[in-house]
Structures are given as C-alpha cells and as structure tokens.
Write a structure and sequence with these properties.
By secondary structure, this protein is mainly β. The chain contains two helices and 17 strands. It has one domain (2-313, 315-319): Beta Barrel (Porin).
Length: 324
C-alpha cells in the first residue's frame, strides 16, 4: 500500500511539474519511440525485446522576424542582435528493444536556418544579411530503462540516459564566405550527456505521460558553450478506435525547454537562452499495429527569452514510423 501511494505520488508530481518550456531557436527535445501516445512527450513505455521502430520526423518553426529598422535601432543602442525567418529540423531515428524493459534509440538530424541577419554595435549603420545555414546535425543516443512496471495500477516509469555526439557540421559559411557562429551551425562540436525521467499512467483509453530531460552542454566549436538545456513535457492522450485495424490518439501536450545563456570565449551572451511554453494539440493514427502517422501544432503561450530575441509564432511537427 505504501509503495502504491508513493508510485502514484511520483506520477502526479512528474505530470503536473512538467508544464513544458521550449527554446524557440533550436529543435525540440528527444521524442519517444514513435509508436503510441504523444508526439513530443517521452512515454515511459519501452519496446518489446527484439522489436525495431524506424521513424522519420520533420519540425518547422516560424518567427516574428525583426525588420532592418528594428535591427539598426538595437545596434545603435549598443546591442549585438540576430534574427532569422524560420527553422527546419528533420531527423531519421531507429529504436530497438534490447530487453522488454530496455530500449535504445539513435537519432540523426538535418537542420536548416533560413535568412539569418545580424547587427553589431561596432557597426550600427549596417545590417548583415548572411543567408541560410543547413546541414547534418549532431546525433543523439538515448536509452530508456523501465524500472517501474505496475500492471495492477497501469503505471510505468523509466530512466532516460543519453549522449549528444558531435557528428554535425561546424564549418558552414555565410554568403560572404565567413564562418557562421556556432549557434547557427548544424552541429555544436560538443559532447553533451543527458539524464531524465519519464512516467506514464493509464486510465482505460486515457493516458497521462510526462518526462523531464536535462542536457549538460560542454564547450564545443569556436570556444562556444551553448548552455545547459532542460526539456520537460506533459501530455494527455485519448485512444479512439476508428476501424478494425485503424485507431487514433487524440493528444494535447504542454512541452518545451529552458536554456541557459550561451558563453563564447567564456563571456555570457545576454541575448540568448530563456524559456518558452507551447500548447500543442495533435493526432496520431495507428494502422495494423505497425504503421503510425502523426501531426502536432504548437502555439506559444509563454515566451520569456533573455535580452533581445525573436519570438516564435508557430511550430508544426509531423512524422511517420513503422515497427517490425
């Protein structure tokens, strides 16, 4: 009885504390295995031993871009500021059930930042139009160890351990032939460990999922530390049966991240980091217990970014997966 109360308390704490914060200028945190439930929130469920899941996902964010007049005003006031129109992030991932309670997932991204512009206080009369930065990003390896499974109360909890590996390009150049700053590169050049927890509680056709994932940023390319990263999410999913072999999850999520200010050559960038909260309704379709397709649209409800940064206007995520 005591264990049951403690388990339920942990689930509720995780669920209500994970009210989601998203760092607008970078891709969302690691998603789950792509086979059931929420889109961004990581479920505590693991794959069955010997099962594989392959997933393709795309994420697109648009921003309230600063005009040239606004940028020049920032520079005249003594600020170094950048802006861009949109951010596109796509990835391919594969997950494998090593044991029933242990799943390993690998994720390889491609990123594109479009129409980057910036101003410097040392050149207050000029807006630098730098063009686009795109290429292969940093691979993520994430393990899920389910250490609690209580079928009698339909509750699961998993430990998340992972590592972001610097496989991405860090030498992309702008239209003037100059190297982009690290925050605008596809890769960071850093090895970043991550640790977190996920919890799932089911009530018949209704599922509550929550996760927290902390990423420790280390120094990478161009002597840049992009800042630690806390991803936390919560989701409610309702499983509805449409046809004999087709079902649909109706999903509402609150998800996102908090990010530290980045450091360049040991100096903090006051116009970086902060918090943003997204409210994200979504749908996931499951066919023949193998194929899934999903869509999620995120609307920012809180944006508390440090210094001067462009706000996010909308985020869209879509993808497909197959299990075998």
């Amino acid at each position: 009885m005591i264990f049951r109360k403690r388990t339920t308390a942990i689930a509720l704490i995780l669920f209500f504390s994970c009210s989601g914060i998203s760092w607008a200028h970078h891709p969302s945190g690691a998603s789950g295995t792509g086979q059931a439930g929420p889109v961004t929130t990581i479920s505590a469920s693991t794959l069955q031993k010997g099962k594989w899941v392959f997933e393709l996902q795309a994420e697109y964010l648009t921003f309230d871009t600063f005009s040239d007049t606004e940028l020049l005003g920032f520079a005249e006031a003594g600020n170094d500021v950048h802006t861009f129109d949109s951010f596109f992030h796509a990835f391919a991932s594969i997950s494998y059930g090593i044991k029933d309670n242990l799943t390993l997932s690998l994720k390889m991204p491609y990123t594109s930042i479009n129409n980057i512009e910036e101003v410097h206080q040392a050149e207050p009369d000029e807006v630098h139009h730098l063009g686009d930065s795109q290429g292969i990003g940093d691979m993520t390896i994430l393990g899920y160890y389910r250490f609690v499974k209580r079928p009698d109360i339909y509750f699961e909890s998993s430990l998340l351990l992972g590592l972001k590996v610097p496989t991405g390009n860090t030498h992309k150049k702008d239209v003037h032939g100059e190297r982009f700053e690290t925050e605008h590169q596809p890769g960071s050049g850093s090895w970043d460990p991550m640790i977190g927890l996920a919890a799932t509680k089911r009530f018949g056709l209704l599922s509550l999922d929550a996760n927290m994932l902390y990423i420790v940023a280390t120094k990478g390319a161009q002597d840049t530390d992009l800042g630690d990263f806390l991803n936390y999410n919560a989701a409610i999913s309702y499983h509805a049966f449409l046809l004999k072999k087709i079902s649909c999850d109706l999903i509402i999520e609150v998800n996102g991240e908090w990010k530290q200010e980045q450091k360049i050559n040991g100096a903090k960038d006051k116009n970086s980091g902060g918090t943003t909260v997204f409210l994200s309704p979504g749908l996931r379709f499951l066919m023949n217990d193998r194929w899934t397709a999903y869509l999620s649209t995120g609307v920012p409800v809180i944006q508390d970014l440090n210094g001067i940064q462009t706000d996010t206007s909308v985020r869209a995520i879509t993808g497909i997966s197959i299990g075998f």
